[in-house]
Amino acid sequence: HNTASGLVSIANRNTATSTAVGAGGDTFLAGMLEALLTVAAGEPALLVMSDELLPEPFRAHVVEEQGWVY
Asked: How far, in Å, CA of 38 to CA of 55, rounded?
């Protein structure tokens, strides 16, 4: 899950910090918390949320809980 931010950073020669958050059903809230704490520390923040299907070989190992896939 670090690939997207890494490739964008390389393409734009951006050396700023980036964080990739993977927290199952809580990913969006964890990302918001990360962004809010970054701003509270006086740094700019941009939160980008993305989701996609798992590749077929991994789908057999998925556990579904409360409508979220982990």
From this structure: 32
Give ∠ CA 53-3-15 in degrees, rounded to 5. Answer: 150
Of 43, 54, 42, nearest in space to 19 by CA? 43
d(CA 70, CA 60): 12
0.90 exceeded by pTM? no
Distance separating alpha carbons of residues 61 and 63, to the nearest angstrom: 7
Query: What backbone torsions phi and psi does residue 66 show, to the nearest 5 degrees?
Result: 55, 40
If one counts every other C-beta atom within 10 angstroms of the C-beta of residue 12, the result is 9
User: What is the rounded average pLDDT of the residues 9-21?
Assistant: 89
DSSP secondary-structure letter at 58? H
Q: CA 24 to CA 48: how far, in whole Å?
A: 16
